[in-house]
Amino acid sequence: MALSDYLINAVFLLVVLRQARERRLDARSIIAPMALVVFVATHYVHTIPTGGSDLALVLVLTLLGLGLGVLCGYATHVRADADGTRFARVGPVAAILLLVGISARLVFVFALEHGAGPAIRDFSVVHQISAAAWPLAMVSMALCEVTARLVIVQVRGQRLAPRSPSGITVSGHHA
Length: 175
Fold this sequence. Notes:
This protein is mostly helical. The chain has one domain. It is built from 5 helices and 3 strands; from the N terminus they run αβααββαα. The protein has helices spanning about 5-20, 25-45, 55-75, 90-125, 135-160, and strands at about 25, 75-80, 85-90. Mean pLDDT is about 85; it is low at about 170-175.
């Protein structure tokens, strides 16, 4: 893993830590993370291998990322204030889920580069997985995880009806 790969993962970790503070759900809350998603996709995805079991590996890890993202999206605290302003905060469960996804990818690459390479190569040969499929699968996992979480948190925020200071749902407002 190159220094840039470690820096990108460090940025992901900082994003998780930053989201532990409550923040407003607005255009900025989706634009910055999606810009990071687009950057990572263009930086790492150059080809889509289709031989052997390549697409099966990509699909499995993409679905794993999607599952983590969905769970994290529902584990994120979302609320609206009396003015209808929506807020979100990553709680402990959501933070753990985010860190599990990031850590799993980092541990895999670390293991690959520090002794597990031959075992992963043997596994790949037996299951007809090309070397190009692994990075695509890892990136797809990360991109689906981030995107699913963002979409679910945004949708949950939009569905919240603003509440008056007394806690009564304000009529006439539709999310």
